[in-house]
Design brief:
By secondary structure, this protein is an alpha/beta fold. The protein is about 35% helix and about 20% strand. It folds into two domains: about 180 residues, 3-Layer(aba) Sandwich (Rossmann fold); about 170 residues, 3-Layer(aba) Sandwich (Rossmann fold), CATH 3.40.50.2300. Helix 5 packs parallel to helix 6 and helix 7 packs parallel to helix 8. The chain binds alpha-L-arabinofuranose (AHR).
């Protein structure tokens, strides 16, 4: 009953202007350009007396995680588990959905059935959510979305994650400047995309393809590697056979795909990286990814920040305290490169804003600091 009151108040507040922020430890920015995730609406909790577990009981949280497909994902799980801990008064029920959308919907329904206090979702795909989020809303359970976006429903209280289209635009802007600096006239590109239908894949593809189109680059092929090392390797093995001697760029939509692609190029005798014939671009900037940038095997790596656990905790604590929370919070995401030949890149981001971004040349300290 208490949660039902809370949900009613939150629903009523959905269209109000945000009042209280909950900044991101990774440098989140609520004023960053909007993604397709939704508008600037505000979610508001009821007063402290009506919030779940406001009487000092343990707060129960169900977390439907995407899976365990990448180093990034491991860092995300570790971050959420560390923040939503017993020490912080939370009983976390964690479900690894193994990249299976049906399993993820079922996990959320089980959380509703169990009447948890909050549900955290990292959505595998961006659509198909409205029915189950309506069920959570009807049950009075606030839903917090992290990392990837939900694009067909606004029935969640808060989202914190990445501006994926900006990540793709970043890769395109960097490649344009890098090719000019190196005097490379023709770009023949192979693309290995992430999980089809995930907002990470949709945004990175959209952003990078804007440059393919505007610069007239040649996209030879694009296939999914499902954000896994095995997927990246399998796709690249087939590319090495089909496009032998015809490509000079491979863009992988995460580090693990890049590791697999690199293994495939090595096996096929293709030279790559700073001293090779093929420019390698990646996303995530996890520890092993930045090590490959330092080793000059990956030319550029665009960070996707997985450390959303502290933000989740702040959102839950704010709701518990009857405060309003921001509907969306963007992580800050630096750009990492192997060579010290370009200081910064200017580009127009997804909200049409002209931005100049510094390029960070990776050293051992940067690798140590990574996740
Ligand atoms: O949603 C974030 C993406 O998912 C990361 O780029 C990737 O590594 C992960 O699997």
């Amino acid at each position: 009953m208490k949660k039902k009151v809370l949900a009613t108040i939150m629903a009523a507040a959905m269209s109000l202007t945000m009042l209280v922020g909950c900044g991101s430890e990774g440098g989140g920015d609520a004023t960053a350009p909007e993604t397709d995730a939704g508008g600037e609406a505000t979610a508001e909790a009821g007063d402290a007396g009506e919030a779940p577990a406001a009487d000092g009981d343990v707060i129960t949280v169900g977390f439907a995680q995407v899976g365990h497909e990448s180093d990034w994902r491991t860092a995300s799980t570790t971050s959420v588990k560390a923040a939503l801990s017993n020490e912080n008064g939370i009983d976390l029920q964690f479900v690894d959905c193994d990249n299976d959308s049906a399993a993820q919907l079922e996990a959320v329904r089980n959380f509703i059935e169990q009447d948890v206090d909050y549900i955290v979702i990292d959505p595998i795909v961006s659509t198909g959510w409205d029915t189950v989020l309506t069920e959570a809303d009807d049950a009075g359970i606030p839903v917090i979305v992290i990392d990837r976006t939900i694009d067909d429903s606004d029935k969640y209280v808060s989202w914190v994650g990445s501006e994926f289209t900006n990540e793709g635009l970043a890769a395109g802007a960097w490649l344009k400047a890098y090719a000019e600096a190196k005097g490379i006239k023709e770009l023949n590109i192979l693309e290995i995309t992430g999980t089809t239908g995930s907002s990470a894949e949709i945004g990175r593809t959209k952003g990078f393809h804007q440059y393919i189109d505007s610069e007239g680059w040649n996209l030879l092929d694009s296939q999914t590697g499902d954000f896994t090392q095995e997927g990246g390797q399998t796709v690249m093995e087939s590319y090495c056979k089909s496009y032998a001697g015809k490509f000079n760029v491979v863009i992988c939509q995460n580090d693990n795909e890049a590791f697999g692609a690199i293994d495939a190029m090595k096996a096929a005798g293709v030279s790559y990286g700073v001293d090779g014939d093929v420019i390698v671009i990646s996303f995530d900037a996890c520890t092993a990814g930045l090590q490959k940038v330092l080793d000059k095997e990956i030319n550029a790596d665009f960070q996707c920040n997985p450390l959303q656990g502290p933000d989740c905790l702040k959102i839950i604590q704010a709701l518990q305290g009857g405060q309003t929370v921001e509907k969306q919070t963007f992580m800050e995401e630096p750009w990492f490169v192997s060579e010290d030949i370009l200081k910064d890149i200017s580009y127009k981001n997804n909200s049409g804003k002209d931005v100049t971004e510094p390029l960070i040349v990776v050293d051992a300290a940067k690798v140590d600091e990574a996740y």
